[in-house]
Amino acid sequence: MEKSAVFSMCGMCSVRCPIRVETKGDDVLRIEGNPHAAGIRGALCARGAAGRSLLYDEERPQGPMIRAGARGEGKWRKVSWDEAFDYVAEKLNRVREQYGDRSLLFSDRGGPFRDTWRALLRGLGTPNYCNHDTACALNVHHAAKSLFGLGRKGFVYDLKNSKHVVLQTRNILEAINVKEVNDLLDGMAAGGKLTVIDIRASVTACKADRFMMIRPGSDYGFNLALIHELLASKLYNEEFVAAWFKDFEALQAFVQPYTPEWAEAETGIPATELRAFAAELAEAAPSVIWHPGWMNARYNQSWALSRSIYIINALLGAIGAKGGLPLGNSLADVGRKGLKTLESLYPKPKEKRVDGAGWRSAQFDGGPGLLTKAFEAIESGDPYPIKAYIAWRHDPLMAFPDPERQREILDKLDLMVAVTFSWSDTAWFSDVILPLSTYLERDSIIIEKGGLKPSLALRRRAVPPRYDTRADWEIVSGLAKRFGLDALAYERIEDLWAFQLEGTDVRIEDFDAKGWVDLAASASYKPLTEKSFKTGSGKIEIIAPAWEGQGLSSLEPYASPERPDKGRFRLAFGRVAVHTQGHTVNNPMLHECMSENTLWLHSDAAAALGVATGDLVEASAGGSSGSLKAFVTDCIHPEAAFMVHGFGHTLPVESRAFGRGVADNALMRGGLDKTDPGGGGLSLQECFVTVRKAS
Ligand SMILES: Nc1nc2c(c(=O)[nH]1)N[C@H]1C(S)=C(S)[C@@H](COP(=O)(O)OP(=O)(O)OC[C@H]3O[C@@H](n4cnc5c(=O)[nH]c(N)nc54)[C@H](O)[C@@H]3O)O[C@H]1N2
Ligand SMILES: Nc1nc2c(c(=O)[nH]1)N[C@H]1C(S)=C(S)[C@@H](COP(=O)(O)OP(=O)(O)OC[C@H]3O[C@@H](n4cnc5c(=O)[nH]c(N)nc54)[C@H](O)[C@@H]3O)O[C@H]1N2
Ligand code: SF4
Ligand SMILES: [Mo]
């Protein structure tokens, strides 16, 4: 049999790197980074390379299933797709008749592939779409909105051309986006500097020119002092400030008391070091990127922290600058027409969102929504009942805190459906599982990619599904048919692609050469104009009217984080290079790379507990506990205990991951109620654990 190859898109994490897949018949031989993609250069991360191991893994849902026992009991009836779709439609229609169309809640993991299912939701008449973002980047998103009127994705990180990159709560070499990693390393090879501010020495910290170990949760204080220093020593870009800042005087007055000496006592970082660092930044400006954070659903002041970061970038003139944070180009910016969307075939539902985003909480974007608030409504019925829930590529029982509490809430639903390619706690607790084909087995719709050089891209299936699984557009189609939404009931992906491309001058054959289609000849930097920022004044607004209108302060006074007593630690978490969240821990190849997580403890704290590396320790909080091995090191702040997120699986169907390590979210009792009032994101690290040597 002949070998062949297809250009596609990795699906092992949400970055979606361009790939080339070599096949022979129904077999995947090899996956590599798409050699045509300049930022990728044929490379993949370890997870991308392990895609084949996902494909051949028998420990994934192999066909549609309907629950046979109690919720979470794990008794399933294997059914046909027709039976599964009929079942969902019948149950959902009963809920809609009794409680109205709006009683359906849907959550996913965001991203560019949402058009089909968002169209389905519109067709069904519910406004209640939420993404995962309350547990990820929502505080960053709302920080950007509050200052610029633009979301966080309105900006590009021009890492390759930057002279100084600052990463604070951002572990870029382990929390990977392949192009970003390559761009950063290229920039550093050309002389760019890297500063890392973290509570522990991550791999990225080890590569930095300057590493500052900070007291957990005190970053906002550090940044206020840094702004103080930039202003006091006139290290900021006065021209940029005069042109683009509104309420600069309010900022000046606000940071007055936050001196570098004050910050030293709060953060543990010497005032002399802060001053030297500020001077270095001013030297590199405007080609500076201080990353505003990605996973910053951590503290009650994470929104204020991200705002302070954006403000620093602006003070240095880095907003809109080459080597800084230029604004991304839309398709219209490069004179091209966008894809036709299925969503626009249906009117936007008139009902108000159940989570209050955009009305009760007028400052919050209804786009991502607030899933935490929607969960509250399942229990309270306020402002109205939610009785059906579809988790589509989302595992809140692992991705949100306090799974015990979540199960109490979710058990109030009349219908719960999971769409997933791997087992997950959420799928296990659902009434119906609709199994998705892996990314190697499915075609996807065409997507638009912004950035400095916009493009169109798609995922193409490399091999047919090994099991009775379906692509997401096929699942939407199957459901749409049951609800009479004929415009979504596609039989062939080619017809859907043709619909999307109508009116553009791109043809599907244009994707053959490289796997994507460039919409501009080269990358371009947009100059800032009075239309760049979508605020009332067209400027960067330090005082955010929408937040002030809700009684929130745009210039939040710093609140000192709690210092835990002996034997107690702030529970900190993060990512590792070889796993994606919770869903690769059972992947045969990646499990071999890392099979359990450990608890990082500072040497002094560990000595006081009589614990050495490799000893089993018990971490407990609020009646929940788990045992894992200790990793003892000087390279972590003594107030923190750190673990990699995603471990501690308890499902018998995942033989490799079962019982290995601990789930951080299970120790976050009461965590569903802890959110940052300014950003709406969860405050996942406002949690403490008690640690002792396990017997
Ligand atoms: N390999 C891999 N890559 C991924 C992912 C994955 O699962 N695996 N997931 C992707 C996703 S969805 C996201 S959101 C991103 C996340 O990307 P990042 O936000 O960069 O990743 P994290 O590891 O969550 O956190 C970064 C660092 O924050 C530090 N930290 C914790 N508390 C504090 C604090 O109080 N102050 C400071 N200064 N630092 C602190 C942690 O020690 C950690 O090193 O990664 C993406 N890339
Ligand atoms: N305690 C704690 N909580 C956290 C984090 C943490 O570090 N600690 N990290 C947070 C962050 S940054 C994020 S982004 C979230 C992640 O939270 P989730 O999005 O829930 O995590 P994943 O494990 O990526 O994916 C969830 C499910 O979607 C399935 N899946 C993956 N890709 C696809 C796909 O393309 N289509 C479909 N239909 N299904 C798919 C997987 O099989 C898995 O079952 O968790 C957040 N929650
Ligand atoms: S970063 Fe790694 S896992 Fe994520 S899409 Fe790229 S290659 Fe795949
Ligand atoms: Mo995330």
Condensed summary:
With 695 residues, the protein is α/β, with parallel strands linked by helices. Helix content is 28%, strand content 17%. It is globular, with a radius of gyration of 25 Å.
Provide structural commentary.
The chain has 22 helices and 25 strands. It is an alpha/beta fold. A seven-stranded mixed β-sheet has the order 5-4-15-14-13-6-7. Helix 8 runs antiparallel to helix 11 (260-267). The longest helix has 19 residues, at 81-99. The protein starts with a strand and ends with a strand. Residues 13-14, 136, 168-171, 174-176, 197-200, 202, 214, 216-217, 219, 294-295, 298, 572, 574-575, 577, 579-581, 642, 685 line the site of one ligand MGD.
Give short descriptive properties of this protein.
single chain, 695 residues, alpha/beta, 7-stranded mixed sheet, 6-stranded mixed sheet, 22 helices, 25 strands, binds ligand MGD, binds molybdenum atom
Largest sheet: 7 strands, mixed
User: Strand order within the widest sheet?
Assistant: 5-4-15-14-13-6-7
Distance between the termini: 58 Å
- The dominant shape is globular
Arithmetic mean pLDDT: 97
Heteromolecules bound: ligand MGD, iron/sulfur cluster, molybdenum atom
Question: Share of helix among residues?
Answer: 25-40%
| Structural class based on helices, strands and sheet pairing | alpha/beta
Please tally the helical runs, counting DSSP H or I stretches of 4 or more residues: 22
| Total DSSP E strands | 25
Gyration radius, in Å: 25 Å
% residues in beta strands: 15-25%
Unreliable stretches (pLDDT < 50, length at least 5) are: none
